[in-house]
Design brief:
The complex is a heterodimer of chains A (107) and B (495). Chain A has three helices and two strands. Chain A is mostly helical and 107 residues long. Chain A has a two-stranded antiparallel ribbon with strand order 1-2. Chain B is an alpha/beta fold and 495 residues long. Chain B has a domain at 2-264 and 465-482: Alpha-Beta Complex (Amidase signature (AS) enzymes). Helix content of chain B is 40%, strand content 13%. The radius of gyration of chain B is 21 Å and the shape is globular. Classes of the chains: A mainly alpha (107), B alpha/beta (495). At the A-B interface, helix 1 and helix 2 of A face helix 10, helix 11, helix 12, helix 13 and helix 14 of B.
Chain lengths: 107, 495
């Protein structure tokens, strides 16, 4: 194992990452998340010690090819069942969300 | 019988039901009353629906009465970690975001338990979305360790392990992404099995990290672990990563395990015994176990897992990356919590998630999003996947020299509630369990000792190669039969 240069801790912008993750953070908790992320990433930088030239990545424990099944139509869940956990439904058949494209009239 | 509830295994209870000594309704009532007594202190359950349990029990009694039980285990209660779907029941994953969610389908494991007639006995507490090692990350409450209620039961399947340990239920199913079945089993003095990746269907298990997750049994003894593995394992058309059915019965293997380990080569990874922070009492118990295994005929072989040091870092990159993608589905639209106040769709998403997820889940989503984000993918995610290859190769090399590997489960015994607050320190405690998930192998945690001063149980771990459950179950059984301490029953100070 040859020792590579250790990775430098990048500048992390927790606010930006939270936007990417669509995750609203309490402003009072931002500092804590910022510090936690920095310390975790600093720890993870340990990986930079390893020489990984020529090593293939592993995404999955076992190499498997596609597992096919017969393409047979089967009964699936009814609409009622699928909507039973929805927080806001319309006419018993639609999930209501806020307007997506501006300029159209509200329902 | 009533006094022995805390000692009974699935197989013991099965014998009583078959002989007619007890009915399922009587049995479930006994477990219900024990649970009522224990829960104020232990808090292993998020929900126990007495009426539903007794309804299932009475249906089982009817089947037995007609001479048509679905299996030997028809009528025996078993609990599920609240991350495994059971139709009509809650599945909160220990999170506020799923507080009102009701499962509309059975997980494959749930269906298989029902097909054998087992009674679903409540929903066990857990770290939110299986992220944690102490059950302190549950959005509802912390489960307590039955051996010492000031300590954690471990996690993330802490509710399952505590419930079995306290005799509230004879067995439970948990899930193990980085040690979440084995570590709480060790902390609570029960048996925890993490099957080979693909052995058990993940259909209906709410995903944390899909390439690492496996459902595993938490039981009082090794035989029950084999029995449950026989029931829940096997190919499932609903999970394309499942393996073909095992041609062998794990229960038969355990029954025929004998009393002799002659010819067995047990690998001792030198890196595992050099870990900083390996508690001296744990080390002592582990060394004692090695001597016991030798006396049973096993040959100890030195092996090396040189990338052990990097496994935790690789794991927390890979697991959080997968989690950030898997948890994107909780957005307040189709199910789960939706925020009250929003002006547009983006606000609905991010505020629902901000209000619904707890701190550790947020931390892991942030980390996972970061390592997958533009500019950092190669530096972190791809690098971690390459290290995963090295960790896997380490095991492949080691298993050329030995049949199974032996190790501690945890560097310390169960710690105090609130005792570890730094996230990185908490992650480091997963050192002995995490590599198994990265490699996709199997491992079992078995109680080995009880510490003199603290009276806390110590677990040891047998690690097998992929598809090596037969090997580890056999060794675990022989060790269990011959260990110095025969019973691991906590004296729960609940009165």
């Amino acid at each position: 194992m040859t020792k590579n240069k250790t990775m430098e801790t990048p500048v992390i912008d927790v606010g930006y990452v939270a936007k990417l993750a669509k995750l609203e953070l309490d402003p009072l908790s931002m500092d804590k998340f910022q510090k936690d992320m920095e310390s975790i990433v600093e720890y993870v930088n340990l990986l930079g010690e390893l020489d990984l030239k020529g090593i293939e990545p592993t995404a999955h424990p076992f190499v498997s090819s596609n597992a096919w099944r017969e393409d047979v139509a089967k009964e699936s869940f009814s609409r009622d069942v699928m909507l039973s956990n929805a927080p806001d439904i319309l006419d018993d058949e639609l999930i209501r969300v806020p307007q997506v494209i501006s300029g159209e009239e509200d329902i | 019988m009533k006094n022995n509830l805390n000692k009974m295994t699935l197989c013991d209870v099965s014998d009583l039901l078959i002989s007619g000594e007890i009915t399922s309704s009587e049995l479930c009532s006994l477990y219900l009353s024990r649970t009522k007594k224990m829960e104020p202190k232990i808090q292993a359950f998020l929900k126990v629906d007495e009426d539903e349990i007794l309804r299932q029990a009475s249906a089982s009694d009817k089947r037995r009465g007609e001479g048509k039980p679905l299996s030997r285990f028809d009528g025996i209660p078993i609990s599920l970690k609240d991350v495994i779907n059971a139709k009509g029941e809650q599945c909160t994953c220990g999170s506020k975001i799923l507080e009102t969610y009701n499962s509309v389908y059975d997980a494959t494991v749930t269906e298989r338990l029902r097909n054998k007639g087992l009674v679903l006995f409540g929903r066990n507490n857990m770290d939110e979305f299986a992220m944690g090692s102490s059950c302190e990350n549950s959005a509802y409450f912390s489960t307590k360790n039955p051996w010492d209620i000031s300590r954690v039961p471990g996690g993330s399947s802490g509710g399952s392990a505590a419930a079995v340990s306290a005799g509230e239920v004879p067995a439970s199913l948990g899930s193990d992404t980085g040690g979440s079945v084995r570590q709480p089993a060790a902390f609570c003095g029960v048996v925890g099995l993490k099957p080979t990746y693909g052995r058990v269907s993940r259909y209906g298990l709410v995903a944390y990290a899909s390439s690492l997750d496996q459902i595993g049994p938490i039981t009082r003894d090794v035989k029950d672990s084999a029995v449950l593995l026989d029931i829940i394992s096997g190919c499932d058309p609903k999970d394309s990563t499942t393996l073909p059915d095992s041609k062998i019965s794990f229960e038969e293997i355990v029954n025929a395990s004998g009393d002799d380990l002659s010819g067995l080569r047990i690998g001792l990874p030198k890196e595992y015994f050099e870990v900083d922070g390996l508690d001296k009492d744990i080390k002592f118990s582990v060394d004692k176990t090695i001597e016991k295994l030798k006396s049973l005929g096993a040959k100890m072989v030195d092996v090396s897992l040189p990338h052990t040091k990097y496994a935790i870092a690789a794991y927390y990159v890979i697991a959080t990356a997968e989690a950030s993608a898997n948890l994107a589905r909780f957005d307040g639209v189709r199910y789960g919590k939706r925020t009250e106040g929003y002006n547009d769709l983006n606000e609905l998403y991010s505020r629902s998630r901000g209000e619904g997820f707890g701190e550790e889940v947020k931390r892991r989503i942030l980390l996972g999003t970061f390592v997958l984000s533009s500019g950092y993918y190669d530096a972190y995610y791809l690098k971690a996947q390459k290290v995963r290859t090295l960790v896997k190769n380490d095991f492949d090399e080691a298993f050329k020299k030995c049949d199974i590997i032996f190790s501690p489960v945890t560097p310390t015994p169960a710690f105090e509630i609130g005792g570890i607050t730094d996230p990185v320190q908490m992650y480091l405690a997963d050192i002995y369990t995490i590599s198994v998930n990265l490699a996709g192998n199997c491992a079992i945690s078995v109680p080995a000792d009880i510490l003199k001063e603290s009276n806390l149980p110590v677990g040891v771990q047998f690690l097998g190669p992929a598809f090596g459950e037969d090997k580890i179950l056999k060794v675990a059984k022989v060790f269990e039969e011959n260990r110095d301490i025969k019973e691991f029953i906590p004296e729960v100070k609940y009165v």
